[in-house]
């Protein structure tokens, strides 16, 4: 296409990077705020689920719209209105201690409009770049996305030392306007490539997206495997804070999370600079195996330095998993259906997160934590290895989850439909 420009991509990427940092500030601060307010992992999981579920369920619709209309305009609309949900939470906090349902409602509203943004953003990358630039761009996109885990926790941990949740929300809301400006700058320099298809129904477009995904069997199989991976990763995202808060304070927690996520920075930079030349299936399998081992190690000890090192290694493997999957999918789907297919991939691959968010609080509070409390069923056996007390059951859950992720590394090279995607 004649409008491919890495410079325009970098402008767009910068805006999304800033937005990612702001979103990470709110996610970290709200997680601590809700846990301190309710003292239950289930409440943290519920807020996480509400923040995630709408964007996943609506992503196929967002993908259809991304193929019908100007993708940059959709990104601007998604950014602007997703900020409104945060404004609602801010108003609730300013008028007194908000109820849990108010926080859930605010993050759900914001998530609805994120469903417009994500497929449009992914499809726009294809608009702007050549195939040779896909892997490098994917590394940079993951670098921006990782900022919510790398930079945001340590920044939020410091800010919470002299700021309250209201100030964090205001900072996040302001980042949306920076993102709007960068998307607008790119939009002005591009012709509208995707025009509305008024004669074709949304249902028809959704069906086309599904058929395009199913026809590429390897892409479908890879997507389903990614859904299993995200299921176990959802436990880590939701329960890392409840596992560590009994061991340390919020500022140290932010530092641990940021140092751990620095692995994602290193992995993304390596891919962004050197790229991955080939053997995507092998790299995917090795990365999954390594990530599974490190995931298990995060739950093995109560030593915060050991947990931080294991977390760092786990996050270092994620960019290789994401990039290999991203490139194999992107190269096997036609550009004119990219928005719809990415929408379908979004809902399928991330259903694992939804299931994990729904189950993690119950598993932590009702099953695993009681096993490793004083006098618990496993306190005298497994407890001698992983420790006993509040949060150690979550550590056991992490050990089991990591081992199951590692098993996928053995399965993937044996699936022919995935191997041929290269």
UniProtKB/TrEMBL annotation:
UniProt xrefs under PROSITE patterns: MFS (PS50850)
Subcellular location: Cell membrane
Topology of the protein relative to the lipid bilayer: Multi-pass membrane protein
Protein name per the record: MFS transporter
Gene source species: Paenibacillus albidus
Sequence intervals crossing the membrane: 12-35, 41-61, 73-93, 99-118, 139-162, 168-186, 219-240, 252-273, 280-298, 304-329, 341-364, 394-412
Lineage, top ranks: Bacteria, Bacillati, Bacillota, Bacilli, Bacillales
Keyword hit for Kinase: no
Highest taxon, organism lineage: Bacteria
Main location: membrane
Sorted UniProt keywords: Cell membrane, Membrane, Transmembrane, Transmembrane helix, Transport
Pfam families on file: MFS_1
GO MF terms, alphabetically ordered: transmembrane transporter activity
A Gene Ontology cellular-component term: plasma membrane
